[in-house]
Design brief:
The chain is an all-beta fold. The strands form two sheets. It has a six-stranded antiparallel sheet with strand order 1-4-5-8-9-10, with no helix packed on it. A four-stranded antiparallel sheet has the order 2-3-6-7, with no helix packed on it. It is elongated, with a radius of gyration of 20 Å. The two termini are about 20 Å apart.
């Protein structure tokens, strides 16, 4: 099998609902959060390249996205009667890199992504390692 490269345009709309029960922390502070709804849209492009390697198939992926939060950018918490608010950044750039190797039904994958807010210095990093079986 030879190598192949695909370019894939992405459009993503996501919606999340978060509800956290009231609790008391380790220093006996009462903590509660308001129920939150968050929505965002992202536009971007991804590339995927695959080739034979080590008796299986090796795939390499990369993606670049521009993400914009369109609703629910504020979070409010109440800690022992004091209201605290935090805001997420509205727009950010996301870079993702990943690799996967499959031999027979077994799949080993890893991904890393970084998000940089465009209007502040806020950054977020994430990584994952997955071992799975395709059937």
């Amino acid at each position: 099998m030879g190598s192949r490269i695909h370019w894939i345009p992405h459009i993503r709309l996501s919606h999340t609902q978060v509800s956290i029960d009231r609790f008391t922390d380790t220093v006996q502070a009462d903590v509660s959060f308001s129920d939150e709804d968050r929505s965002s849209v992202a536009l971007g492009i991804a590339t995927d390249s695959a080739r034979s390697a080590g008796g299986g198939e090796l795939s390499l992926r990369a993606s670049v996205h521009l993400e914009h939060h369109i609703r629910g950018t504020d979070t409010t918490a109440e800690v022992s009667g004091t209201r605290l608010r935090a805001s997420t950044q509205d727009t950010g750039a996301i870079l993702g890199l990943g690799a996967g190797w499959q031999k027979g039904p077994w799949i080993l994958e890893t991904t890393v992504s970084a998000r940089q807010a465009l209007d502040t210095d806020s950054q977020a990093l994430s990584a994952a390692l997955n071992l799975g079986m395709q059937f």
